[in-house]
């Protein structure tokens, strides 16, 4: 609305200088000479920073390796001449305008000594792989006798599925505006982890996190990419050296060069089933590419861990180490591409067994978590299948290749969707109640366009029994309570559980303030509830006093509490996941091979839905991203030098409005009995299953099985 939302690159402190980055053009080696004379003398140039004049810095603490580490990689930034990946920043120019900075950056000439680099999965495999370590756990699972069971199963199916690298393309490219004042750093940063960024930047500069102030009031999408990368460090160094505020806004190309994406995977799925289609062996193994400076071997085995009952299981992630920019988290890391392999293979097995693919999956519904052995907190998978199938018209599906409308072959396909429930430690919320009957609720959480602030305004209004317009939800600032990552589809549960605790604290404090002159006198926190902008006895609602009255009688203008969410223990006793079933109609042009998807229907069981409008929108966004992965998205790399060749939105294809069909989203809205508020995450499940459902629909249309994403027309001709 009227440009009133200020994004990170829209803050304009006085005397600000603009930064531009120079990226290495080799995959591995070192800079032997850097000619900065022309750049230094170019109009408007304030500073040219290279490894030769940059101050000494510590590396960024790598995301997920320590409590508040938030770095996408842990490589030194302008600390030496070494080049570790094509695109690595080798210089920064600061100038009076962005155009002057970019022009001067273009004048810098680098000379390199080039080392041999490993730039492809094949070369990485040839050099030897290692077992991935994901979040401290070896990415290897073996239950029962998966090899014997596969060998002796009545029916066996085995195939290899491949998915390419993907790059992040949030609508808002990464950007930071920052300045130093009295030795403290103030950053307006487009991030999804304000506390992680503050702590990590502090550790790079040898500062306490209380000296780094990060705000992130509006973010144009994150999807896992909006953490700490080199550009924030470069900007902070430049601002300190120049003694001026700095804005560094990465170009779209700059995002491709210095912000990691999703890793390429090569997945083998082997399924052994008995005569009735019950799984005896489920094997999901394969190799992913990864840089040596990163913490995430793309965990494609996650879907297989909890989807199906099976007598035996073998899961394994091998890592091929490449000389490349660190790969990273991207919406549903693991499941987004892992579900392509697993759910394609289930479709292929169903075909061989002559069983309807939905029926095959329902026959393999587990009673408890197949890997952990824990009971499910809530699992409405069969509801998802039945509901979506009926709405979609699954009964109209024909045998492969039979339905043709003019030039178009028409097919229907489906796949299971799923994503785990998580709640990370650190959730906290502050509530300030004022005597005018309003409340300010503060959490160091993030709004990236998904509806966080709306939903938590709603949650707080509900809990406090105040109208929504009496609530101000403050977020996106590391000075606020809580360490809340907008990631892993866990922000809502984390914030919600903290608001619940903070509300309880508030009630206790209010009862104290109310004292003996109140109708509430003598009641404990367990005996009252919030209602009509105040507290009332649960047993006798006549015993009521408004917040405003309690505060004014006590002579207080305001009352503040902070509630710390309990340590997340629910996941130790329960297997907790959101589930879904996604159905796709695919039309494949018999002449050109072009694929169109005119309609998608998904039924999802994500626990209680706090806001149907924002939740549906989250699911649609995820599904559209899945459609991109299915049909278009692919980071293309020149194997000779490890350079991303399609670093722009004109050559890296994403769905645009004309590619996006009718998407119907249905929610079970059945509260999870174990999660705070009954809600599970919804941010990531939407992307899962989609590419398999598209591949399965394309198979049904054409009789051709594509096991390599994206499903481009050349693979269908
Ligand atoms: Mo996400 S990949 O947890 O932002």
TrEMBL record:
Record-linked InterPro entries: Ald_Oxase/Xan_DH_a/b, Ald_Oxase/Xan_DH_a/b_sf, Ald_Oxase/xanthine_DH-like, AldOxase/xan_DH_MoCoBD1, AldOxase/xan_DH_MoCoBD2, AldOxase/xan_DH_Mopterin-bd_sf
Ranges for domain Aldehyde oxidase/xanthine dehydrogenase a/b hammerhead: 2-116
One Pfam annotation, family name? MoCoBD_2
Give UniProt keywords alphabetically.
Answer: Molybdenum, Oxidoreductase
Could you say which EC number(s) this protein's record lists?
A: 1.17.1.4
Give this protein's Gene Ontology molecular function annotations.
iron ion binding; xanthine dehydrogenase activity
PANTHER family the UniProt entry points to: ALDEHYDE OXIDASE 1-RELATED (PTHR11908:SF132), XANTHINE DEHYDROGENASE (PTHR11908)
Q: What is this protein called?
A: Xanthine dehydrogenase YagR molybdenum-binding subunit
């Amino acid at each position: 609305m009227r440009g009133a939302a200020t994004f990170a690159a829209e803050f304009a402190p006085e005397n600000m200088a603009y930064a531009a980055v120079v990226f290495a053009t080799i995959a591995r080696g070192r800079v032997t000479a850097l000619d900065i004379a022309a750049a230094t003398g170019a109009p408007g140039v304030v500073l040219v920073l290279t490894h030769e004049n940059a101050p000494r810095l510590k590396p960024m603490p790598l995301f997920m390796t320590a409590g508040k580490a938030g770095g996408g990689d842990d490589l030194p930034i302008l600390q030496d001449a070494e080049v570790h990946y094509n695109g690595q920043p080798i210089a920064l120019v600061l100038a009076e305008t962005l155009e002057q900075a970019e022009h001067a950056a273009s004048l810098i000439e680098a000379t390199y000594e080039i080392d041999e680099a490993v730039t492809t999965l094949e070369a990485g495999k040839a050099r030897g792989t290692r077992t991935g370590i994901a979040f401290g756990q070896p990415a290897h699972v073996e239950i029962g006798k998966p090899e014997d069971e596969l060998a002796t199963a009545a029916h066996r199916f085995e195939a290899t599925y491949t998915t390419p690298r993907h790059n992040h393309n949030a609508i808002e490219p990464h950007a930071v505006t920052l300045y130093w004042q009295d030795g403290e750093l103030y950053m307006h940063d487009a991030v999804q982890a304000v506390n992680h960024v503050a702590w990590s930047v502090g550790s790079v500069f040898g500062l306490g996190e209380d000296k780094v102030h990060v705000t992130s009031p509006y973010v144009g999408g994150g999807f896992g990419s909006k953490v700490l990368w080199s550009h924030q460090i470069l900007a902070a160094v430049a601002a300190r050296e120049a003694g001026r505020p700095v804005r560094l806004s990465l170009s779209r190309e700059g995002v491709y060069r210095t912000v990691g994406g999703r890793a390429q995977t090569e997945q083998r799925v082997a399924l052994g089933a008995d005569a009735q289609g019950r799984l005896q062996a489920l094997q999901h193994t394969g190799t992913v590419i990864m840089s040596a400076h990163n913490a995430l071997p793309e965990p494609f085995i996650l879907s297989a861990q909890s989807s199906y009952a099976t007598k035996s299981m073998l899961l394994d992630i091998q890592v091929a180490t490449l000389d490349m920019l660190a790969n990273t988290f991207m919406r549903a890391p693991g499941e987004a591409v892992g579900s392509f392999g697993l759910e394609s293979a289930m479709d292929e097995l169903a075909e061989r067994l002559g069983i309807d693919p939905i029926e095959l999956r329902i026959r393999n519904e587990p009673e408890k978590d197949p890997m952990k052995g824990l009971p499910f907190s809530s699992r409405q998978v069969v509801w998802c299948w039945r509901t979506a199938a009926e709405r979609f018209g699954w009964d109209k599906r024909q045998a492969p290749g039979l339905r043709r409308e003019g030039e178009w072959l028409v097919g229907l396909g489906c796949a299971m969707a799923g994503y785990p429930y998580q709640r990370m430690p650190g959730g906290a919320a502050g509530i300030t109640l004022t005597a005018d009957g309003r409340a300010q609720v503060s959490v160091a959480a993030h709004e990236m366009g998904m509806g966080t602030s709306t939903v938590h305004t709603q949650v707080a209004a509900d809990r406090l029994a105040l109208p929504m317009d009496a609530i101000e939800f403050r977020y996106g600032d590391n000075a606020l309570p809580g360490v809340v990552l907008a990631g892993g589809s866990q922000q809502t549960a984390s914030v919600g559980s903290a608001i619940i605790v903070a509300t309880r604290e508030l009630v206790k404090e209010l009862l104290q303030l109310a004292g003996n002159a109140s109708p509430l006198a003598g009641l404990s926190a367990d005996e009252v509830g919030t209602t009509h902008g105040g507290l009332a006895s649960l047993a006798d609602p006549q015993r009521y006093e408004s917040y405003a009255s309690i505060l004014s009688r006590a002579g207080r203008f305001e009352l503040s509490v902070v509630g710390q969410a309990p340590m997340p223990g629910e996941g130790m006793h329960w297997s907790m996941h959101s589930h879904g079933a996604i159905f796709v109609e695919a039309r494949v042009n018999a002449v050109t091979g072009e694929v169109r998807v005119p309609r998608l229907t998904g039924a999802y069981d994500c626990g209680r839905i706090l806001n149907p409008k924002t939740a549906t929108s989250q699911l649609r966004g995820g599904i559209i991203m899945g459609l991109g992965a299915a049909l278009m998205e692919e980071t293309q790399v020149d194997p000779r030098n490890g350079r991303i060749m399609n670093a722009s939105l004109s050559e890296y294809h994403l769905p645009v409005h004309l590619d996006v069909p009718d998407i119907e989203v249905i929610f079970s809205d059945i509260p999870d009995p174990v999660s705070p508020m009954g809600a599970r995450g919804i941010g990531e499940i939407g992307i899962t299953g989609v590419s398999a459902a598209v591949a399965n629909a394309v198979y049904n249309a054409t009789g051709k099985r594509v096991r390599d994403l994206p499903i481009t027309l050349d693979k269908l001709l």
